[in-house]
Amino acid sequence: MIVYWMTEVIPMAVTALIPIVLFPWLGVMDSKDICINYLKDANMLFFGGLLVAVAVEKWNLHKRVALRVLMLVGSKPKWIIFGFMVVTAFLSMWLNNTATTAMMMPIAQAVLTELDDNRKKQLEIKRTESRVKMAATLASMTPEEVDSQKKFSLFRTALKLSIPFASSIGGTGTLIGCGPNIILKGQMEILYSTSMINFTSWLVIGMPAMVLDLFFAWVIILFIFFGFRETFGRNKVESDDTANQVIKTEYIKLGKMTFAEMVVGASFLVLAFLWVSREPEFVKGWVKYVWLVGWLFVTDACVAITICVLLFILPSKFPNYLCFRRRRDADPPKPAPPILDWPTANKQMPWSVILLLGGGFALADACKVSKLSESIGQFLISLKNLPQVVVSMIMVVCAFVMTQFTSNMATTTIMIPILAQISSETCINPLYLMLPVTIASSFAFILPVGTPPNAIAYSYGDITIVQMVSRC
């Protein structure tokens, strides 16, 4: 490590992360004991996930995946919305929700612009064919044009609302998908000295719930904006291939898949595999099949930081020196720049989220030490006479209302210590209350201030607060 510091082969900030990589793998120290010198183990897991997301965003791998999937959906409005929601939710499982929404909204805007232009051209052709005098149509639109404009306006609003909704829902699918999930894991460690939550256990619960929530959200959006017949019936609306053409054009602009994209994609797949298979609970994970005792010290955070450090070492272009040099390569041999560089990582890393996580854990400690959560739990002791399902529903409703006006991370931070005390007073498994509340805190769909994805959708100017409140 001293050699790395002296030569600056990799950035000094990244060099400082090497103990998290080496000490657990070599059996020197447990990852949790090392990470506490930097951040909590849960925070380091989130930090590692964000760094991988920065690499994905830097090389536009997420955009390539999104456009490729969108090319496979149909060209009818409901299938376009379905395609955007599925892609957004999948990306939000691994990337920052705000970045995912910021990337998907311009694609949706381009599709809507082309569809609107094509719709107007088709109406103009029909108007010309029916020999309607232009003078008579300048002052007012025909009933057909009014109906077409109304339907397109509904489709535009539905599509632009579906993206932030899918982004919030997708974040609940994985442990690193959004901040509240990490807060739950970290506060469980504070309150009970063990979280009982890892990447795989969350995936088993969060993924099915996320898929169901996404499906119901899609159906509800269609029902609200297009009615029962469009949602469930077999309509005879002709397909418009304009959307597919726009998406295909955007995909062609990306060109062929680069070496950097392949490296990032492979690193992402390796990281996901290591996370899922490390300690899946229902079968023995790879940590129990290796001969090195030290591998038992490896946590999900250690795996994430290991891959992140490699991203600062792996080249972004195929090497052109030594045995890697191709015969037809005319460029002089030289090292290629790495996949990630520190200026890019430092600029795109949402440090505010890391600080929010730390503040949340500090607040949880304060609630425990000051016995504030115990006092609130005593105040709510009457809940023990209610059925467990009712208690859980009451807490979920409280979280859902709070998260509409405050950040989802703040909601989770405030409620989890209280839920811990309530579960103690009512003899309920704490996860029975905490998991639904954590997931519900991400479902801030009503106001633009609820989540950054909502604010991004609102900033495009096509959606009003009244529309969000009345239709969400």
Helix percent band: 55-70%
Structural class: mainly alpha
**Main sheet attributes: strand count, strand direction, barrel closure:** none
Mean pLDDT across all residues, rounded? Answer: 79
Number of domains: 2
Contiguous uncertain segments of 5+ residues:
132-139
Count of DSSP strands = 0
Give the termini separation: 53 Å
- Which term fits the overall shape? flat
The helix tally amounts to 23
Radius of gyration: 26 Å
Family: Belongs to the SLC13A/DASS transporter (TC 2.A.47) family. NADC subfamily.
Pfam families: Na_sulph_symp
Membrane topology: Multi-pass membrane protein
GO molecular function: C4-dicarboxylate transmembrane transporter activity; dicarboxylic acid transmembrane transporter activity; transmembrane transporter activity
Describe the structure.
- Helices cover 68% and strands 0% of the residues.
- It has helices at residues 2-7, 12-15, 18-25, 31-35, 41-58, 61-70, 77-92, 97-129, 134-138, 143-170, 179-192, 199-232, 242-253, 259-278, 300-311, 342-348, 351-369, 372-379, 388-403, 408-426, 430-440, 452-459, 465-471.
- It is mainly alpha-helical.
- It has 23 helices and no strands.
- α3 (18-25) packs across α15 (300-311), α7 (77-92) packs antiparallel against α8 and α10 (143-170) runs antiparallel to α22 (452-459).
- The longest helix is centred in the middle third of the chain and has 34 residues, at 199-232.
- It folds into two domains: 2-348, no CATH class; 352-471, no CATH class.
- Residues 132-139 have low confidence and may be disordered.
- It is found in: Membrane.
